[in-house]
Design brief:
The complex is a heterodimer of chains A (84) and B (347). By secondary structure, chain A is an alpha+beta fold. Chain A has three helices and five strands. Chain A has a single domain, classed as Orthogonal Bundle (Arc Repressor Mutant, subunit A), CATH 1.10.10.10. In chain A, a hairpin with a 4-residue loop joins strand 2 and strand 3. With 347 residues, chain B is of the alpha+beta class. Chain B has three domains: 127 residues, Rossmann fold, CATH 3.40.50; 129 residues, D-amino Acid Aminotransferase, Chain A, domain 1; 59 residues, ATP-grasp fold, A domain (Dna Ligase, domain 1, 2-Layer Sandwich). Chain B contains eleven helices and 15 strands. A six-stranded antiparallel β-sheet of chain B has the order 13-12-9-10-11-14. The longest helix of chain B is centred in the N-terminal third of the chain and has 16 residues. The two termini of chain B are 20 Å apart. Classes of the chains: A alpha+beta (84), B alpha+beta (347). At the A-B interface, loops of A face strand 10 and strand 11 of B.
Chain lengths: 84, 347
């Protein structure tokens, strides 16, 4: 699985409100999405994020992989992250 | 100091007069009187609190420049105007033509030249942009309905049908294009501009050029909410150095003198900015620039009276404006005053 970098200028609040100062677009993230984005911002790899989520939440690995893949693709589409 | 300002038509497609006045009034340097110049006795700005001190009806541009000059002489005799700031597209050619006569009357302006107005005109924008290597949607011009029919093979849909001064419609097929042609031409005349539709988010820049190629200030905004007339009803300041640099380059290429609004669309596929329009006056959302830290209207006033004006180098990102409408209640006597005497003292 590839790893991803969050664009530097992105502002994410603790509540999960995300604002891109360069495009003016804003989004709201649910708590898990917010946690994942913060982990990506801290430079964690997809595998590290997967392990963390699996240890904290009651979810099976294949469902998590599917959801994570879906979420990452949305982030790429909205130009919030790019592949490292 | 007595400043006369037009564009108090604070309606659903508002003129920039009210926010320009709001900016000037907020400047610590300003003391004086604001004189509203209005074309219609029901322009809301003339009735709004803390906007203009006094208002005068002036003739529409279609009545001819001599009539306008006569009226301005009359107003100047009473009010001793120091600066006039016209804010509407359709009156700028007239005021630019009158600027030397106004100067003789002791009235300063800070207006683009006739050539500058022409180079950025909607029917000339494509040539200007191509000459200076700015990305611009392809453009066709129709000076009659038969022109439009002749161009039918060249038009790809959806396309944007635009008036020379105002109005634009997106046409999804040739029938809609014909409908839009008639709607716009009956209101704003010819030619009609047929502009390639570029899909993407819209971004606008409010800016002030010093007339020597430099940008005094520029604030970029993304439209958050767009009305059915294509006007921004809410917007947010953004930070994109590429967009600001592009705006600086356009102002340099034109040697633009005065306020302006640059309209762009960011192409979804290429992520590049396409120049849609250069409006020759501040936008109606210019107060967002003031609130974000660049009082562009007050800076224009300083330039008009040859006062030193520092360049703005930054502004606050993430400032939002949300426009709203409000039913102002007034009295028949006020309408009588402006209709019969052509003057209305505010307050």
């Amino acid at each position: 699985m590839s790893n991803y970098k969050v664009f530097d200028n992105l502002a994410v609040s603790e509540s999960g409100f995300l604002f891109s100062p360069s495009t003016g677009e804003s989004f709201t993230l649910n708590p898990i999405a917010n946690q994942i984005l913060h982990l990506l911002k801290q430079g964690e790899t997809i595998n590290q994020i997967k392990e963390k989520i699996l240890s904290e939440y009651d979810i099976d690995e294949s469902s998590l992989e599917k959801d994570l893949d879906d979420f990452i693709n949305q982030l790429i589409n909205y130009k919030i992250v790019e592949e490292k | 100091m007595n400043i006369a300002i037009t564009g108090l038509n604070n309606v659903d497609s508002p003129g920039p007069g009210v926010p320009v006045i709001r900016g000037i009034r907020e400047s610590k340097e300003f003391t004086g009187k604001i004189i509203g110049l209005i074309y219609d006795s029901l322009e809301p700005g003339a009735y709004m609190k803390d906007v203009s001190d006094i208002n005068y009806l002036i003739p529409y541009p279609s009545a001819g420049l001599d009539n306008l000059l006569e009226r301005l002489k009359f107003i100047n005799d009473k009010e001793k105007i120091d600066v006039i700031i016209p804010t509407l597209d359709s009156e700028l050619y007239g005021f630019a033509k009158l600027s030397s006569k106004l100067e003789e009357m002791g009235i300063k302006t800070f207006l683009p030249t006739f050539d500058q107005l022409n180079f950025r005109a909607k029917d000339k924008l494509f040539d200007f942009a191509v000459k200076h290597n700015f990305k611009v949607p392809k453009n066709l011009l129709a000076t009659s309905i038969s022109d439009l029919y002749k161009l039918s093979d060249e038009i790809t849909f959806p396309t944007v049908i635009k008036g020379i001064f105002y109005d634009a419609y997106i046409a999804h097929n040739f029938e809609e294009a014909v409908g839009a042609f008639h709607k716009i031409s009956s209101k704003w005349g010819l030619p009609i501009i047929i502009q390639e539709f570029v899909k993407g988010q819209e971004y606008n820049v409010a800016a002030l050029g010093d007339g020597n190629g430099d940008t005094v200030g520029a604030v970029a905004m993304k439209k958050l909410y767009i009305t059915d007339k294509g006007k921004a009803w809410a917007g947010i300041t953004i930070n994109d150095p590429i967009l600001i640099k592009l705006s600086d380059d356009i102002i340099k290429a034109l040697n633009w003198k005065s306020g302006c609004e640059l309209e762009f669309v960011k192409d979804e596929k290429s992520n590049e900015y396409y120049l849609l329009e250069i409006n020759p006056r501040f936008p109606a959302w210019v107060y967002l620039a003031v609130a974000a830290g660049q009082n562009l209207p007050a800076a224009l006033l300083n330039l008009a009276i040859s006062k030193d004006q520092q360049k703005f180098t930054s502004y606050e990102i993430g400032k939002i404006f949300i426009r709203y409408s409000w039913d102002l209640i007034t009295d028949i006597r006020k309408l009588e005053e402006i209709t019969v005497k052509g003057e209305l003292i505010n307050g």
